[in-house]
Predict the 3D structure of the following.
Amino acid sequence: MKVMELNNVRKSFNGELDVLKDISIGVEQGEVVAIIGPSGSGKSTLLRCATLLTEMDGGGLSYSGEKAAWNDESGKTVYARDLKKIRSYFGLVFQNFNLFPHYTVLKNLTDAPVSVAGRSKADAEVTARELLDKMGLSDKADCYPCQLSGGQQQRVAIARALAMKPEILFFDEPTSALDPELTGEILKVIRQLAQEKMTMVIVTHEMAFARDVADRVIFMDGGVIVEQGDPKEVIGSPREERTRQFLSRFAN
Ligand SMILES: Nc1ncnc2c1ncn2[C@@H]1O[C@H](COP(=O)(O)OP(=O)(O)OP(=O)(O)O)[C@@H](O)[C@H]1O
Ligand SMILES: [Mg+2]
């Protein structure tokens, strides 16, 4: 069974621009999917649809077979009334970290597990400290986000997403706000999660990383999937001219 499935997703803004045109993606347990494509191709919109931040116009969404959204008879998306359980299946890491600035690092990690998932404070703190240890941030538990570097903040954001014990993690350009050295730190963490068979969907402009870490690469342009497949094939020897053009902008 697929951990996450998007079927025939359509989305336009203000009824004008077709940002997503009939996109379908299924992600298997333990699979790492990288999504690449030019600016404006709809990558973030797709992640926002998958994580219930943006409503789809048409199409379906399910997590581990549980339906979050489906088409009515007219082909328009309707959402399940109660999405609380669905939200517990996924985590999301943004480009700009989005930590709570007025909470310590530890509180950033324990807040949702306690207030949303209903775990005990003691349990949540044990998990949080394990995750901080794993991210090399054990000594930062009592710091506030503004006291951390960008790379450290992003590692806290990843730990915060993992603290909810999601089935699947989405990343939207997790390194694009970071300089090259800090980018390396974050890619290392994601690489480690991939080795541990965490299911992940990663929107990235890091082509070498996508090629090395992903099980599958999806190239999007103009709201459609132009091609997808084995990273070495899609990035190394793309079938489609549009993919070739896009990749020629990156020195590999
Ligand atoms: N809330 C919105 N209202 C109107 N238009 C939007 C909105 N969000 C996105 N768009 C438009 O949808 C298109 C796709 O945007 P999206 O952010 O998904 O692209 P992207 O592939 O993530 O690009 P980038 O690589 O620059 O992050 C763009 O043309 C954008 O202007
Ligand atoms: Mg984007």
Notes: The longest strand covers residues 17-27.
